[in-house]
Amino acid sequence: TATTANLDALAFEGATKRNKPNLKVGSLVYARISLAHKDMETELECLNPTTGKAEGYGELKGGILADNLDINKCKSLLEKNSPFMNTLMQGFGFPFELATAMNGKIWISAPSTSQTISVYRTIMKADKDGLESLNDEWFADIED
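Now predict its structure.
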């Protein structure tokens, strides 16, 4: 379920009162929950609290958002040496980026719109039909 959260303008790497990120309403960000309590508004931040660096957090530009994925599939993409991620990386002949959340949402970006859609379709197929459905024949039909 969706809930509101507060993302302070200073919760970004290098942000100051004079130098704030220029986010528009509806911008998609990759953030971490920094405070969650039942009696308080949830707070987000777009930096690693230990290092103060963005390390991948921040605004996600371009790409598409896949949602309503199985949460276990999302978790499997985040595992070290993930079979799911390894299958995707070996199957495509082009680079792509994923930002995987623990709420069933994945942001996908590739060099072209058609490649981004190919990655999206592949993830959705694996979510519906299982990882074993991603065989060589499936990837042979994908545009580079």
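The helical segments are 71-78, 83-91, 113-129, 136-140.
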